[in-house]
Structure formats: C-alpha cells, structure tokens
Amino acid sequence: MKLLEYGTTTRDEPFLVMEYLEGTGLHSLILGKSPLLDGQRVNLLRQMAEALGRPCMMPANLHRDICPPNYVVTPDAGDPRQIGPSDPQ
Predict the structure, then answer these.
(1) Which of 15, 30, 47, 76 sits 20 to 30 Å CA-CA off 24?
(2) Mind listing the pLDDT tens digit for each residue in 19-28?
(3) Domain ranges, residue 40
(4) Is the dihedral of CA 55, 56, 62, 67 positive or negative?
C-alpha cells in the first residue's frame, strides 16, 4: 500500500492519504463460508511474514496490531490471493 500524502490540517491535526486497495479483508476471508485450503493458508502466512520483513515495516514503522483485520487480500494475475498490510503505521 502506497502512502500518497501526509501532513497536518489547518487545525494542526496529522493526516495520511493512502492508496485504496481493492480486495477482501483477511478477517472476512477467514470468517467466510469457504474454508481456506492448507496451501492457501501457508501462502497467505508466507506473504504476511515477507511483508513484515520489508524495509517499510522495520521497527520504527511496524504496525503494532498484526491481526487479520489489518490485512487486505487483493486479486493479482499471477496469484489470486496477494496479501499486504492495510496500514503500514
């Protein structure tokens, strides 16, 4: 997810503008009617681990609430279930 803009408002309140992700929240996917296959679960967990190892997720920027509602599973041509943090802060 890309950070598009950040700053403070005229009332000195901080704000972030981030790209919109088309997809399904991991939490919704887990609670959905179709259970995930073992291979799908392993793939999603692998992607979560890789996302946490990216420079943008190093300790100063690491999201402190790593849980399914904070991840979005997006469609991708090569792999129909790509996952990434929905909020890098």
Answers:
(1) 15
(2) 888 888 888 8
(3) 23-85
(4) negative
